[in-house]
Every structure is written in C-alpha cells, then in structure tokens.
C-alpha cells in the first residue's frame, strides 16, 4: 500500500491540534485500518463499535481532562519512524483481562469502570498510602513523549504518551533503602473483565522492575495518549510505559505498587518461564523460543523493519545492564 504521509514525525504536538494531527485523517485511517485488521472484524459485535475512525471509547468526564494536551518534551522523539495513527493503535491492543483478540479489546473494555480509581502504595516505604487518580495526576506536571513500543510478538508502534516520570512518583512514595524492586499489580474485576472470568490465568496481572530500572528517566507513569486521557483499551486511567522492554512489562490500569527487597514474580514469566524473562529487554539477537526477534512489523506503516537493541534506547539504558 502506498502511503502519502511524511516519513518522520518531528512537530511538537503541543503546537498542533491533536484532532487535526491524529483523528480526522479519515481516508488515511480507513486505508490503514483495513490493511492492518484484515479479517478481524468478523468476530466483533455491533457495527458502531468497530468503526476505524473513532477508536476512543467513552470516558467519564474528570477534572484532569483539562490537563490535555500536555507540553511536548522534544527530548523524546522517534524521528526515524512514522507516528502510528490513533485509530490503528487503539484497535490493536493486548489486554488479556478482556480478550486476546486485539481488535475487540476496545469494545469489551468500554464498560470498564475507571472512576473512581484508587491506587495503593505499600511494602518498603516510609508510610504506605492510597491515592485517588485525580489527586495523583495533580501532583506531577504532565508532559508528552513520543516512544517506540515493541511487543514481544514482533510488532511495534510509535505513539505520543502523556504522563510523568516514574522517578518523580517514586520520590513521592519515599521507598526505604531496603527496597530493591518495585512490583506493579493491575485490577481484579472479573465481573467487568470477561477475560478474567474465562481465561484461567493467575489474575490480577502483575509485573515488576528493579529499582534502578524504575528510576530511569524513560520509565513513564502514563495517563494519556495522542494528547488525550488514556482510552480504556490502552490501560486507563494510569499505566506504565517502559519503552526499552517488551510491551508486556508496560502494565496497564495499575491499582497497586509495592516496594520490595526480592525480585518479584511476573505474570508472563509464571505462565511461560522459558519465553518471558524477568528483564525482557528488547533484543534482536535473542530469539523468542518460537520466533526471531530480529525484525518487527510496524503496525502503522505495515513495514517490516529491523529491531534495535533496547528498542533503540541503548544510550539511555545501556549502562543499567553493563
Ligand atoms: N494489565 C495488563 N497490562 C498489559 C497487558 C495486559 O494484558 N494486561 N498487555 C501488555 C502487552 S503484551 C502489551 S504489548 C501492551 C500493549 O499496550 P497497548 O494496547 O496500549 O498498545 O500492554 C501490556 N500491558
Ligand atoms: Mo505485548
């Protein structure tokens, strides 16, 4: 397919209306959605839910809506890549609490309740606490960053996330010196998440990082995408983005953060220890047991491109693994 689109993204998003940039390129989005989704619409529900033009599911109105779009941080770009259209990214989701069908996550997540939302911080911290989402988001200035995102399944996208450095949040949590790891836990609500009822996985989804990884400037507590609050299929209201690791480390819809002294277990490592390591750093030289990780399919352009060590973030994180 021939695409009439600039091959690189460089405009500060704060300078252009998100609508113009991402949402209203109808013909362009239609073409791409068809190219990417192929036959996937077959298994879906009502027609209004599978439109390729409006990927955002209805979100509750919250005071924090006024914080978008946040100022773009030019330090985090992906000039070698093409920004993935919102409708592609919002219709190609991994969120097993709902379904393993990427194209149907948005529909199945649409009734998920995200307001109110409380996050709990516990373990090796000076004082465990709970914080509501609206209080949390007010505490830290939001910024926008364009990151590459590489799934272990050998596809990737390039999207503008909005959030704040996890490092800043960690300072706020005041972990004790004995804390060496941080563990993230997602929600457990089988009545709202059909995948939690139907798939015998060890819910809720959990993952973790070393504290030095969590402190890296790239680790982003993420509340928005494409200049708007996170849609449910992307992990509303708050998720993690760890761009140098395979996507499954970027835990969605966080309800609990625990500081601990020992390396935590992770959902995917418990399910398939030989396939998903604790670190799960993007590495083109280490094949998955069933496929090569040398290349990836860019879901926005449809191009197969080489995979980069640490997903192209070696200058930021290489020293963590020296
Ligand atoms: N809670 C939760 N978080 C999750 C997942 C999940 O199934 N549940 N899937 C992960 C995987 S495998 C990927 S690739 C990314 C996908 O994020 P996206 O749908 O916003 O692109 O979310 C990650 N975070
Ligand atoms: Mo993934």
Structure in words:
- By secondary structure, this protein is of the alpha+beta class.
- Helices cover 18% and strands 21% of the residues.
- The protein has ten helices and 13 strands.
- Strands 1, 4, 5, 8, 9, 10, 12 and 13 form an eight-stranded mixed beta sheet that branches. The protein has a five-stranded mixed beta sheet with strand order 3-2-11-6-7.
- The radius of gyration is 19 Å and the shape is globular.
- The N and C termini lie far apart (41 Å).
- Residues 1-55 have low confidence and may be disordered.
- Ligand MTE binds at residues 93-97, 151, 186, 205, 234-235, 247-248, 250-253.
Describe how the helices and strands are arranged.
Elements (H helix, E strand, L loop, with lengths): L17 H6 L2 H12 L33 E2 L13 H4 L15 H5 L8 E6 L5 E4 H6 L4 E8 L4 E11 H8 L7 E6 L7 H5 L7 E5 H4 L5 E6 L2 E2 L9 E3 L12 E7 L6 H5 L23 E4 L5 E3 L7 H4 L5
Parallel strand pairs: 1-4, 2-11, 5-12
Antiparallel strand pairs: 2-3, 4-5, 5-8, 6-7, 6-11, 8-9, 8-10, 12-13
This protein binds the ligand Nc1nc2c(c(=O)[nH]1)N[C@H]1C(S)=C(S)[C@@H](COP(=O)(O)O)O[C@H]1N2 and molybdenum atom.
Q: What is the gist of this entry?
A:
With 322 residues, this protein is an alpha+beta fold. It has helices at 18-23, 26-37, 86-89, 105-109, 133-138, 166-173, 194-198, 211-214, 267-271, 314-317, and strands at residues 71-72, 118-123, 129-132, 143-150, 155-165, 181-186, 206-210, 220-225, 228-229, 239-241, 254-260, 295-298, 304-306. The longest helix has 12 residues, at 26-37.
């Amino acid at each position: 397919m021939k695409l009439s689109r600039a091959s690189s993204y460089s405009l500060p998003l704060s300078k252009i209306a998100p609508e113009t940039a991402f949402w209203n390129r109808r013909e362009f989005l239609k073409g791409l959605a068809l190219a990417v989704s192929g036959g996937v619409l077959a298994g879906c529900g009502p027609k209004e839910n599978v439109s390729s033009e409006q990927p955002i599911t209805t979100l509750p109105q919250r005071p924090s809506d006024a914080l978008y779009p946040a100022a773009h941080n030019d330090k985090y770009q992906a000039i070698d890549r093409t920004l993935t259209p919102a409708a592609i990214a919002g219709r190609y989701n991994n969120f097993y609490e709902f379904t393993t069908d990427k194209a149907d996550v948005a529909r199945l997540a649409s009734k998920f309740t995200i307001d109110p939302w409380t996050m709990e911080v516990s373990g090796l911290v000076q004082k465990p606490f709970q914080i509501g989402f609206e209080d949390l988001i007010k505490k830290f200035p939001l910024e926008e960053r364009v990151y590459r995102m590489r799934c272990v399944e050998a596809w990737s996208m390039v999207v503008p996330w909005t959030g704040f450095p996890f490092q800043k949040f960690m300072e706020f949590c005041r972990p004790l010196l004995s804390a060496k790891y941080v563990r993230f836990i997602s929600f457990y609500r089988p009545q709202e998440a059909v995948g939690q009822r139907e798939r015998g996985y060890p819910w809720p989804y959990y993952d973790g990082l070393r504290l030095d990884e969590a402190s890296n400037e790239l680790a982003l507590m993420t509340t928005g995408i494409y200049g708007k609050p996170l849609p449910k299929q992307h992990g509303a209201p708050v998720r993690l983005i760890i761009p140098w690791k395979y996507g499954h480390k970027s835990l969605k819809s966080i309800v609990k953060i625990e500081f601990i002294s020992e390396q935590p277990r992770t959902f995917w490592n418990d399910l398939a220890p030989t396939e998903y390591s604790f670190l799960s750093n993007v590495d083109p030289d280490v094949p998955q047991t069933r496929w090569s990780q040398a290349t990836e399919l860019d879901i926005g352009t449809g191009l197969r491109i080489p995979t980069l060590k640490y997903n192209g973030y070696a200058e930021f994180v290489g020293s963590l693994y020296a």
